[in-house]
Amino acid sequence: MAQIVNIRRDVDDKFYRYRMPLLLTKIEGKGNGIKTVIPNMTDVSKALSRPPTYTTKFFGFELGAQTSSDEKTDRYIVNGAHNSDKLRELLDVFIDKFVLCGSCKNPETDLVLTKNDAIFRDCKACGQQTGIDMRHKLATFIIRNPPKKTKKSKGAHASAANGNNGGTGSPHSGEDAGSDDEFTKRLKADAAELPTAEQAKVNEDDWSLDTSAEAVRARKLESAVASLTLGDGDDSEGEDADSPYTVVKLWVEENRTTITANDVFKKAQELGIDKKHRTLQILGRSLFTDKIVQELPKFVVLLKKMVTSDKGEISEKHQKALMGGIERLVGVDHPNLVPSVPKILMLLYQSDVLEEDFIKQWGTHVSKKYVDRETSKKYGKRANPPQVVG
Length: 390
Hints:
Blueprint: E1 4-6, E2 19-21, E3 26-28, E4 35-37, H1 41-48, H2 52-63, E5 67-70, E6 75-79, H3 84-98, E7 109-113, E8 119-123, E9 129-131, H4 137-144, H5 182-193, H6 197-200, H7 213-223, H8 244-255, H9 261-270, H10 277-286, H11 292-307, H12 316-333, H13 341-350, H14 356-364, H15 373-382, H16 385-389
Antiparallel strand pairs: 1-2, 3-4, 4-6, 5-6, 7-8, 8-9
Helix pairs in contact: 2-3, 2-4, 5-11, 7-8, 8-10, 9-11, 10-12, 11-13
GO molecular function: eukaryotic initiation factor eIF2 binding; GDP-dissociation inhibitor activity; GTP binding; translation initiation factor activity
Region (Disordered): 145-181
Domain W2: 234-390
């Protein structure tokens, strides 16, 4: 029985929960036929959620040696004599480059291969997608031998996710009140163009995410400049250049004057981030300009769809993320918009994007998560709850 060690061997914590068998090696043959057999490669790779062929091939590339993998006989070989310590050190490098999340360093990731042959580590712990070093030879091998599809449980998607809230909307909404004003009519017309929940749902059995030519251009553009500061909280952490959040931000900013709500939703869907609250933080800042009061009606249907869960409930986390992005837009990019905060909140409230209780809490709670405390205080004064929700 192989010894069990931490997946990150640099972590000296007996309560660290991510574990794997210690890599074992066995030297066979002699002379030109000498080779190193790894008898527990399958068990190690299973702990890392990576095919054993990837790890074996990585060893070969790093050592400049031929390798052979036979899944039927469970036999993985690296030509030449290589001691266990050397291969364990290389395994640590493989884990760092192809397993650990580039953001939180958690090993709970899956490899995602896009149709443009980019490879991401999709982290289940923090929700980030971080790129790998595409210059490494293993990247080419992964593209030619993509991860096999894995079955995942599919939750039922309620019809309310299509932009309606299943009849559980605010009693102040235009639709529930029977309003037939032009604004409400436009909302209904725009909502009809957005995909239904079934059409919008990303196939959870598919490892590939569809990214367009525009996304590729955006990634190239991002590679030419410094990483963006789009941290989930205080904007202090740089975003990976290949992150889908960076891609959607650059794409929106490049096409802001021509895109529709439907275009934005499809782009987020292609990148697999249409359900992520962080997407709303980025859209709240990048989708609008200092003309946000005039621009909002064009996109409120999109925002309503994205804050509404599959059960037809408006997510508080998504509301906070959206307002975080708008806080950055107003407090950092366009401070002259602070007096317009009540109008912005009213539009979002009347469109059922924000709930009354959320607005009241937001208008009275000073937070420095997205902007400094002084700017947050200015919002509080401008967003007097009675003014907003009347």
